[in-house]
Design goal:
- The chain has two domains: 108 residues, 3-Layer(aba) Sandwich (Cobalt-precorrin-4 Transmethylase, domain 1), CATH 3.40.1010; 126 residues, Methyltransferase, Cobalt-precorrin-4 Transmethylase, Domain 2 (2-Layer Sandwich).
- The chain has nine helices and ten strands.
- The longest helix is centred in the N-terminal third of the chain and has 17 residues.
- It starts with 5 loop residues before the first strand and ends with a helix.
- By secondary structure, the protein is an alpha/beta fold.
- The structure holds S-adenosyl-L-homocysteine (SAH).
- S-adenosyl-L-homocysteine binds next to helix 5 and strand 10.
Length: 244
Amino acid sequence: MNTHPVCLVGAGPGDPELLTVRALKRLEAADVVLADDLIDPRVLALVKGRLLRVGKRGGCISTDQAFIHALMVREALAGQRVVRLKGGDPFVFGRGGEEVDALRDAGLEVEVVSGLTSGIAGVAAAGIPVTDRRASPGVILVTGHPGPGCAEPDWAALARSGLTLVVYMGVARCAGIVQRLLEAGMAPSTPAALVHAAHTPAQAERFGCLHELPALAAALGSPSLLVIGAVCAQGVRAALARTA
Ligand code: SAH
């Protein structure tokens, strides 16, 4: 039986207009689509084949991941065109690397279709440029929830970096993260923002200072990004609006 390459497709942050042309083609051609929890319903509505929801909410992560690998391999070996649909970009906190390894170990070909990651495109939806030569020479994308087997980020080093920090999965541990940044010498008045459900109908954003982030996170909940750094300052955003 000839197999098709299994396709890991990035769905972008929400709005289906932010899918790449290639992502849309692969979605429409798929016999079966294995979709994560956070995929926007408007993107799921584009699926023409079988739609399997394989989100990990509330489950045992390792077992679920092994189950997803086995399901993809089984469907591909049965000759199906398999799309693994992941929020944002498949290789940014999406376990895409693990899935590629599992598929290649099973002798399958893999195609990766990059998507717009929420930490850039979602932050932009709140009017925040992740870099800006007037405010920040770079950006760090970091997880607030490293998970088993993954080292805790060196928050003190990040605090000293002078770069924009964009924290994924940071809502639940926001108070602890902010405390570590403050202990490392970051000013409590550092501009910060919380961007919730970017590029979806529920999008909300709040601006404040670093010490106010835990309250903002508690108010808006997940899925949200914590953004920390001078690019969040009202002045920078206002200046950008004037030059737009
Ligand atoms: N691969 C995804 C990230 C998956 S991790 C990407 O590239 O965007 C899940 C985390 O991403 C969430 O906890 C949240 O921090 C962030 N996230 C994903 N979609 C989001 C959205 N539309 N708005 C705000 N944050 C989002």
